[in-house]
Amino acid sequence: MSKSGYDWGAYPVVSLEEDGEIVGEWVEVTDEGMKALDRLEGYPHLYDRAMVEDLANGLRGWVYHMPAAKAKQNGERVESGDWVEHVRYSPRGVRR
Q1: What proportions of the chain, in percent to the nearest 5, are helix, strand and coil?
Q2: What is the 8-class DSSP label of residue 37?
Q3: Is 6:59 a contact under the CB 8 Å cutoff?
Q4: What are the pLDDT digits (tens) for 35-54?
Q5: Is the peptide bond before 91 cis (omega within 30 degrees of 0)?
Protein backbone atom coordinates (compact mmCIF):
# COMPACT_ATOMS: atom_id res chain seq x y z
CA MET A 1 0.00 0.00 0.00
CA SER A 2 1.47 3.37 -0.96
CA LYS A 3 1.20 5.50 2.15
CA SER A 4 3.34 6.44 5.16
CA GLY A 5 3.44 5.23 8.73
CA TYR A 6 4.38 6.92 11.99
CA ASP A 7 5.52 5.53 15.32
CA TRP A 8 3.32 6.76 18.18
CA GLY A 9 5.05 4.54 20.72
CA ALA A 10 2.47 1.92 21.65
CA TYR A 11 0.94 1.77 18.19
CA PRO A 12 1.46 2.81 14.56
CA VAL A 13 -0.36 5.58 12.72
CA VAL A 14 -1.03 5.64 8.97
CA SER A 15 -1.32 8.73 6.79
CA LEU A 16 -2.85 8.46 3.34
CA GLU A 17 -1.49 11.86 2.27
CA GLU A 18 2.15 10.92 1.67
CA ASP A 19 3.99 8.55 -0.64
CA GLY A 20 5.64 5.50 0.79
CA GLU A 21 4.93 1.87 1.43
CA ILE A 22 3.64 0.36 4.64
CA VAL A 23 3.47 -3.19 5.88
CA GLY A 24 0.19 -4.28 7.39
CA GLU A 25 -2.14 -7.19 7.90
CA TRP A 26 -5.49 -7.96 6.34
CA VAL A 27 -8.16 -9.41 8.60
CA GLU A 28 -11.72 -10.36 7.77
CA VAL A 29 -14.32 -9.18 10.28
CA THR A 30 -18.09 -9.25 10.64
CA ASP A 31 -20.22 -6.11 10.87
CA GLU A 32 -20.15 -6.46 14.66
CA GLY A 33 -16.38 -6.86 14.53
CA MET A 34 -16.12 -3.67 12.49
CA LYS A 35 -18.14 -1.79 15.11
CA ALA A 36 -15.78 -3.10 17.81
CA LEU A 37 -12.72 -2.05 15.76
CA ASP A 38 -14.23 1.42 15.27
CA ARG A 39 -14.50 1.79 19.05
CA LEU A 40 -10.97 0.45 19.60
CA GLU A 41 -9.46 2.76 16.98
CA GLY A 42 -11.33 5.84 18.18
CA TYR A 43 -13.21 6.25 14.89
CA PRO A 44 -14.18 8.92 13.92
CA HIS A 45 -12.57 11.09 16.63
CA LEU A 46 -8.95 9.90 16.68
CA TYR A 47 -8.83 8.17 13.29
CA ASP A 48 -10.83 8.26 10.11
CA ARG A 49 -11.10 5.22 7.86
CA ALA A 50 -11.02 4.78 4.10
CA MET A 51 -11.40 1.97 1.61
CA VAL A 52 -8.04 1.15 0.01
CA GLU A 53 -6.72 -1.35 -2.51
CA ASP A 54 -3.69 -3.56 -2.03
CA LEU A 55 -2.65 -3.86 -5.67
CA ALA A 56 0.17 -6.31 -4.94
CA ASN A 57 -2.23 -8.83 -3.39
CA GLY A 58 -5.50 -7.98 -5.14
CA LEU A 59 -7.24 -7.09 -1.88
CA ARG A 60 -9.51 -4.24 -0.90
CA GLY A 61 -10.56 -3.13 2.55
CA TRP A 62 -10.72 -0.49 5.25
CA VAL A 63 -7.69 1.22 6.76
CA TYR A 64 -7.69 3.55 9.76
CA HIS A 65 -5.71 6.73 9.10
CA MET A 66 -5.19 10.32 10.14
CA PRO A 67 -3.94 13.50 8.43
CA ALA A 68 -0.16 13.67 8.06
CA ALA A 69 0.08 16.90 10.08
CA LYS A 70 -1.60 15.21 13.04
CA ALA A 71 0.44 12.00 12.64
CA LYS A 72 3.71 13.98 12.64
CA GLN A 73 2.82 15.82 15.87
CA ASN A 74 3.32 12.78 18.08
CA GLY A 75 5.58 10.47 16.17
CA GLU A 76 8.49 9.89 13.87
CA ARG A 77 8.03 8.58 10.35
CA VAL A 78 8.76 4.87 9.96
CA GLU A 79 11.01 5.03 6.90
CA SER A 80 10.99 1.27 6.32
CA GLY A 81 7.18 1.21 6.37
CA ASP A 82 7.31 -1.77 8.76
CA TRP A 83 6.32 -0.61 12.26
CA VAL A 84 6.89 -4.03 13.88
CA GLU A 85 10.47 -4.17 12.64
CA HIS A 86 10.92 -0.50 13.52
CA VAL A 87 10.06 -1.01 17.18
CA ARG A 88 11.93 -4.31 17.36
CA TYR A 89 15.16 -2.64 16.24
CA SER A 90 14.64 0.83 17.67
CA PRO A 91 17.82 2.95 17.59
CA ARG A 92 17.16 3.73 21.24
CA GLY A 93 17.53 0.02 21.95
CA VAL A 94 14.25 0.01 23.82
CA ARG A 95 11.50 -2.42 23.00
CA ARG A 96 8.17 -0.74 23.31
Answers
A1: 25, 25, 50
A2: H
A3: no
A4: 999 999 999 999 999 999 99
A5: no
